[in-house]
């Protein structure tokens, strides 16, 4: 197994039969894939299916990934495709969507690649710390959705004392505020 | 426009309250044992509306009392295609288990066989002279059909999830 955590050599080794390299990819990317699937509101069982689907798609395309360095994005994008499909239809047959296209050169800006914030541990930490600087009810709402992913709209409304119908729009507004706060702090 | 789901995923990872469950990573590790080196993956493709020849079963249905058909148990026909081979698979859910009846077009000929694989079992089947195959009593979940052809790379259908 390559002595590295870089995706390209691990992917090559896994394609050539190195199970240890595959295990290391699983260890590295599964937490992000899980978080992406859950962010679509999937319960544990459905999120499990979305993540497993993405790993199986990788297995099917393991020798055909155009940019192995961008494997993380490929896995997250594939997980999101699968999660979105489950979230929208909860179909009894989960078809194989087309694998995502390879990232284009220059796709490493946050605008072009919203997944960069998921892939980078430092940026994730900055996002979490930035929540403390939001005004209410955003601070409490985002802390709640972050720390209790299974809390439904009804439960959030009760805990924060807001009408049930305003939870979704308020959450969207708060996430926009958070995004602007981070963008203002991020180095250009 | 922001990507709410990406931001939420980043937030939750940083908060650390929803770690990936152990069985999810265990399934992902196990997936590696399911690869078929050198195989061509056949993606799912649309079935023309004029399709009138669903696969017939070459094994009898499992015994059981007659009952009104549950809409959820209506057969579903899927088609996969690659490398000059189409694999039609008709799936019926019965008593929580899956029955598969399939057909290869064209029939790959003598010496060929198929494996019906789930993450935890493989059932090998000979192919009938008309290109048909079948398996019954499979657990719901992920499945693939691998066609081994003489002198050609195997063709494996894209992994597909069937819920009961």
TrEMBL record, chain A:
InterPro entries, per the entry: RNA_pol_sigma-70-like, RNA_pol_sigma-70_dom, RNA_pol_sigma70_r2, RNA_pol_sigma_r2, RNA_pol_sigma_r3/r4-like, WH-like_DNA-bd_sf
Keywords: DNA-binding, Sigma factor, Transcription, Transcription regulation
The RNA polymerase sigma-70 region domain, residue ranges: 25-92
GO BP annotations, alphabetical order: DNA-templated transcription initiation
Gene3D superfamilies in alphabetical order: 1.10.1740.10, Winged helix-like DNA-binding domain superfamily/Winged helix DNA-binding domain
Chain positions covered by the region annotation Disordered: 87-111
GO molecular function annotation: DNA binding; sigma factor activity
SUPFAM superfamilies attached to this UniProt entry: Sigma2 domain of RNA polymerase sigma factors, Sigma3 and sigma4 domains of RNA polymerase sigma factors
Domain of life of the organism encoding this protein: Bacteria
A Pfam family recorded for this sequence: Sigma70_r2
Family to which the UniProt record says this protein belongs: Belongs to the sigma-70 factor family. ECF subfamily.
PANTHER family: RNA POLYMERASE ECF-TYPE SIGMA FACTO, RNA POLYMERASE SIGMA FACTOR HI_1459-RELATED
Protein name, UniProt field: RNA polymerase sigma factor (Sigma-70 family)
Species this protein is from: Thermocatellispora tengchongensis
Automatic annotation (TrEMBL), chain B:
Biased composition range(s): Basic and acidic residues: 64-73
Span list, region Disordered: 32-73
Superkingdom: Bacteria
Full protein name: Uncharacterized protein
Organism: Thermocatellispora tengchongensis
Phylogenetic classification of the source organism: Bacteria, Bacillati, Actinomycetota, Actinomycetes, Streptosporangiales
